[in-house]
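Mods, move this if it's the wrong board.
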Amino acid sequence: MLDIGYALSRRFPDPPQTEYRTADVRALRHDLFCGDVYLADTVTDDEVSTAWGWVPVLDFAWALCDIAERLDRDPMGSRASRPQRAELDFTESTELLRFERRFGHVKIRADWQDDDEPALTVPFGDLRREARDFLQDVVADLTDMHEDLDHNPAVWDLLARFPRV
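Not the wrong board. Structure tokens:
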């Protein structure tokens, strides 16, 4: 089972004058809600996580949903023998989170991991479902902290594009 989580940073708070109702996509994806994220297999206890404090959490959730869709483009779906790949880059560094789907499973590997650490391997369906749930949960949490966020049209579009599965 895949667990995706986050912790907001106290070192990189949002600017106090932020208007969440009118924040544009660039601000929502790159400038606000910084922290750390993790992906973990609850059965094997394998984990991929950041410890930088500056990862834009909403952008990570958004990108993870986009990646799940990209990994599902092959018409053969889980029967496809050709690997399908995608990368999530972290804007403020050269580090990448690499995804490779083959058949019904996805291997997730981080550039910053040691070579002897195993890749996180999860069923594709779990990745897609958990990524969407994570996005919905992150937006709900952020809306609880910043009530004007739920009036932002970019957030409405995002939630409509990636509903819970």
